[in-house]
Structures are given as structure tokens and as C-alpha cells.
Amino acid sequence: MGASRWSEASAVAFAVGAYGLSYGVLATAAGLSPLVATLSSLLVLAGGSQFAFVAVLAAGGAPLTGAVGGLLLNVRYAAFGLAIAQVLPRAPLPRRLVDGYIVVDESVALALGAAGRGEPPEAVTARFRLVGYAVAASWIGMTALGAYGGRLIGDPEVYGLDAAFPAGFLALLAPWLRTPAGRRAAAAGALLAVVLTPIAPPGVPLLAAAFGALASYGAPPPRSPTPRSPDVPELP
Amino acid sequence: MTTTTIALLVLAGGTYAMKAAGPVLAAGRELPPVLARAADLLPAALLAALVATQTLASGTAVVLDARAVGVAVAAIAVWRGAPFGLVVVLGAGVTALARLAGVA
């Protein structure tokens, strides 16, 4: 299991690094100094919102507008943090503060995916932290490389890396798709997000999708109730 | 400090507060059953939403492009029980090939 955790973390770090590199290039092109660009990755550690922020700067918008847009995009991390908190142990405060820092899409998704496969909470916690540290190191380091190294790099979309993330998230979703309640929550979440994409500000669709988890509440109870633990979704 | 630096600090501080709220305040605590059930299904709704938006959204537009081809192949791989790494490589590789072949 340890080996699979490391290979998973390095694969994620590689893909995240490619985006970190392009963020570093874009951020300096938008007017941030290489040092500020690198610090922004260290302090924010949420790629989508950082891209949104520098996109506003590049378009000549007010920096605070960019910050508000980025924050809206990151509201989902409150939900992600709550979801992963169900698996994390009640550790000392400094540890929990670090755990909060490494709440990113990849660390939470991979950890919850493992929980969905029935992995015990200690292993899920170890996975969350390993992927979180790998993503942080890769994102910050590659931002620095892109910011200081200039425009030597191609567009990550040429390699289809933008599709690597949804493909991976789909693989992680699989355990939930085997239960009726999971299927309803997934369908409602996807539908809400897609329907809201053209009409709501960026970030709101993903936030609203959290309410998809409520889609199973009005439904009749499953025919064969399965025992469930508080932190691990039902296995098929 | 420039307004850009201040804006970045606002973004960093707000983002950290939202990320850390769950791990700092709720880790290792039993949630009430209703909330616990929602927290169980929350990942399903959020993962599905991430899949849908990262496949179909382009800014605020909903589009069908090369990503949909790659993710569709990845979906078949998931359905056939392929390992995580293979699913990701297929999703990215098929998308790259579709772009090479001229799919938007």
C-alpha cells in the first residue's frame, strides 16, 4: 500500500508541477515579480484561484477584484476540509493547522477515494498528508522555476494534462457510483455544477454542488440497509 | 505595500481560513447523524461536480471538446476496473491525441 501511495503522490505532483510551471510564467507575465509569484503559491496554495487572480491582473482589473474572485473559487475548500476532517484524527493543534494548509483538491479527493475503497482512517490520513505535501512542494517549486526561468515551457494542454484531473476524479468517484445514494448525490452534484456554470460567478457552481449530497434525503431508504461507519462510505 | 500585495494577502488569508476550518475545528469529532450522512455523500457530489466542470466548462461556457473524448475513454476504463494511474494516463493521452487530430 505504501508503494502505491508514493506512486500516486508522484503522479499527482508531476501533473500539478506542470501547472505550477505555467502559473509561474503567467504570473510574472501579468506583472508579479518572480519573488511575489513564488510567495503567492506558498501562501495561497490553491491553483485555480491563483490563475483567476493573475488573469484579472493581466486584464488590467483591480487586484482586490481578483482576490474576491479567487476567494469565491475557494469556498469549496470549506466543504472539502469538512469532508476530510471526518477521517482525520484529533491531533494536536499545530498538526491540524498544517493539515488545514494542505487541503487541496488532489489530497482530499485521493484520500476520500481511498476511504471509499474501505481503507482504514490511519492509512487515509497518511495518504492525505503525503499527497498534500507532494502537491505543495511541487506547486511552489515549479512556480519558482516558471517565474524565474521564463518562457521556455510549452502549454500543458498540448499533453492533455487538463483532462488528467477529471479522469482521476472520476476514478475516485467510482466507489460511490455503486450505491444508489452515492449515485444520486453524484448526479445531483454534477448537474447543479454544469447548470450553474454559465449563470453563476466562478466557484459558485462547485459550491452549490455540495448540496447534491442532500439529494438522497427525500428518497426512500435502500431495500437492504447496510451497516455504516461514520467516516467510511458504504462499500458495494 | 502595494494593492497587489494586499490583495494577495487577502486571498491567502481567506483561503487558509476556509481550508483549515474543517481540520482544525471538526477533526476527530463525531458529527450528528444527519450531518455525518451528508458528509459521507459530500465527496460524491463534489467529485462528480469536479469531473463535470473540468470536462465541460470553459470559463463560464459549457463546451464539448477534446477533454470530453479523453474523459469518456477514462470512464470506460473506470467501468472496466482499470487502476488509477492507467485511468489518468488514458484521460490525458486520449485528450492529447484528440487535439492532435483536430478536435477543438
Give a short synopsis of this structure:
By secondary structure, chain A is an all-alpha fold.
Walk me through the structure:
The complex is a heterodimer of chains A (236) and B (104). Chain A is mainly alpha-helical. In chain A, helix 1 (2-29) packs parallel to helix 3 (47-58), helix 3 runs antiparallel to helix 4 (63-74) and helix 7 packs antiparallel against helix 8 (121-149). Chain A is 69% helix and 0% strand. Chain A has eleven helices and no strands. Chain A has helices at residues 2-29, 34-44, 47-58, 63-74, 76-85, 93-101, 105-116, 121-149, 161-177, 180-196, 204-209. Chain B has four helices and two strands, in the order ααββαα. In chain B, helix 3 runs antiparallel to helix 4. Chain B starts with a helix and ends with a helix. The mean pLDDT of chain B is 88.
The SSE order of chain B reads HHEEHH
Secondary structure tally: strands of chain B: 2
Low-pLDDT sequence parts of chain B: none
Largest sheet of chain A: none
Element pattern of chain A in H and E: HHHHHHHHHHH
- What oligomeric state do these chains adopt? heterodimer
Mean pLDDT of chain A, as a whole number? 82
Strand order within the widest sheet of chain B?
1-2
Mean pLDDT of chain B: 88
What percentage of residues of chain A falls in helices of 4 or more residues?
A: 55-70%
Gross morphology of chain A is globular
Number of strands of chain A: 0
Structural class of chain B: mainly alpha
